[in-house]
Amino acid sequence: MNLMHRGFHESIKAKPVERFVSWLKSIMEGVSVEAALARRADNFLILRIIAATLVIYGHAPHIAPAVENVDLFVRLGWGHYSGDIAVDVFFLISGFLVTGSYIRQKSLYKFAKARFLRVFPAFFLNVTVLALVYGLMLTTLPKLDYLRQADTWSYITTNLKMASDMAWTLPGVFAEGLKTSTINGSQWTLPAEVRMYVLLGVMGALGLFASARIGTLVLIAVFFAGLLHPEFFPLHPDWFRIGGFFLLGVLVYIHRSSIKIRLELAVALVLLAVLTHHLAIYSVTFALALAGVVFSLAYLTPVMRWLERFGDPSYGIYLWGWPSQQLVAHFVPRAGLALHVTLAIMLATSFGYLSWAFLEKRMLRFK
């Protein structure tokens, strides 16, 4: 019996050691994107959650009355502030995962349905609650007057169109005393995301993903055509940068069999970005470095499987981050950076998990 117990305990102790050795080996040898996908285990969930909370940190100086512009990444000389970096990560991961979704389904209808169910229900809930609950509670107008205002209802109808000219304010809400009266500044990226889905669907329907070479040439042509002749595309000028990160994610997926994720490659790309910081090519080297870091963290670090059992609050955190910060700024106007960000993250994370549990997860069942 004692021998059995000793063997059992030794086997338990051995497992963490074996996992560490396996992880260390994968770090040293690297792994192809295709092989990493076959594992069906990654850290994209935690990366999206971190990105969503980083957006809150980045927006703090623009919302909190007592917070100055002290963005860490700007101070470090990255040339990009934390909010932009977080959104870049979102679009990079989205381009990668959504391309895989289309190629696996091979159906434009199923792809469009899945994208609609992932984006619109939570967004509809967000704009409706902001207009009819959040705004009604915080407006300085009499409640009935607020509900009679055309701008109250156009906030919902205009934003649900996913156009570039979105509605940003509500009558009498945050009109005085705060840095901004914008109800939800984070929603500006959603129309861009939807347009990227449309582009991906059209390319897939035309069979352009059947060949990685053809797909690459088309994506590069579309990107440069957008830069040189933006008037030909239904895109706001601010969308081209994040669209580029989305297309980079698409390229990584369609070349998944030939791209190998290696720690030394990620380090080399970061060093290249540092060395070219003051050159015109920096926007490209920065994008490649960020991609190298993101995919290394996703596939070369221990997978946080325990987090998956709680669901995916990242989209909800992103949607409710700015409104949560406005609430903190309204009720705790003297909060410094740490307190403001902490309270806002707690609120947004709560809303994110509620949105996932009671809406997003249920909608995804219809896929």
From TrEMBL:
Pfam families: Acyl_transf_3. Signal peptide: none annotated. The chain crosses the membrane at residues 45-65, 85-104, 116-137, 194-210, 239-255, 267-300, 337-359. InterPro entries: Acyl_transf_3_dom, Acyltransferase_3. Keywords: Acyltransferase, Membrane, Transferase, Transmembrane, Transmembrane helix. GO terms for molecular function: acyltransferase activity. Residues 46-353 form the Acyltransferase domain. This is Acyltransferase. The lineage of its organism: Bacteria, Pseudomonadati, Pseudomonadota, Gammaproteobacteria, Lysobacterales.
